[in-house]
Amino acid sequence: MSSLNILVVEDEDAIREMLVMVLEQAGFRSIAAADAEDAQKVLDDALPDLILLDWMLPGVSGVEWARRLKKDPMYRGLPIILLTARGEEEDKVKGLEIGADDYMTKPFSPKELVARIRAVLRRSGKINDLAQITVGDLVLDTEQHRLSIGDKQLDVSPTEFRLMQFFMTHPDKVFNRTQLLDQVWGRSVYIEERTVDVHIRRLRKILAEYGREELVQTVRGFGYRFSIADSATVST
């Protein structure tokens, strides 16, 4: 769960801080923004796994920003849960019609919030209740901290394990070095971008022993992508 990031967009300081605390206690990473403008800057740097979005925000409202995101192919698949004091059925329908994945009326319990988040992440394929992520014959076991191909266990470091966990839960998407640093190492840690290249090379070397080095691909000018579909045509 530690590799999953949630963007919290809430203009009230006390509520925003409470949401961040609840999420971190539940094992998520969180990034906070006070309005849609700041939230968009976050998206420009790193793509979260889910957005908790307040309906009423200063400037561009939360519901309007959500509408824009759902129209953009880059963000269309990004899960959004709307948070609002509006409890009328008409407002709920409006929120869901623009593409929001769920809707919570304030006040709500932290336990219910976490349960709703997990449900949305489960539906979007970002978490696996079995604690195993399987892509083809590649299996990542988050409980036993093992990565294997078939019956062969791969010798990877904790960082490379987290890198593969992130890749396997975000297949076919391109991430630049900064995004990978934020998602795998965390924003609070200062590490040079070339560190990503070092771990990618080592990961490919390990995968190459099983003829699977093409699972982790370089997208020239952009970054890296994990793709089982493309690799299937070149692996033996």
TrEMBL record:
Gene3D superfamilies linked to this entry: 3.40.50.2300, 6.10.250.690, Winged helix-like DNA-binding domain superfamily/Winged helix DNA-binding domain
Keyword Transcription regulation: yes
Protein name, per record: Phosphate regulon transcriptional regulatory protein PhoB
The keyword Isomerase belongs to this UniProt entry's keyword annotation: no
4-aspartylphosphate: residues bearing it: 54
Stored CDD domains: REC_OmpR_PhoB, trans_reg_C
InterPro entries: CheY-like_superfamily, OmpR/PhoB-type_DNA-bd, Sig_transdc_resp-reg_PhoB, Sig_transdc_resp-reg_receiver, WalR-like, WH-like_DNA-bd_sf
Compartments reported by the entry: Cytoplasm
Key words, A-Z: Activator, Cytoplasm, DNA-binding, Phosphate transport, Phosphoprotein, Transcription, Transcription regulation, Transport, Two-component regulatory system
Gene name of this polypeptide: phoB
Domain Response regulatory span(s) in chain numbering: 5-121
GO MF annotation: an example: phosphorelay response regulator activity
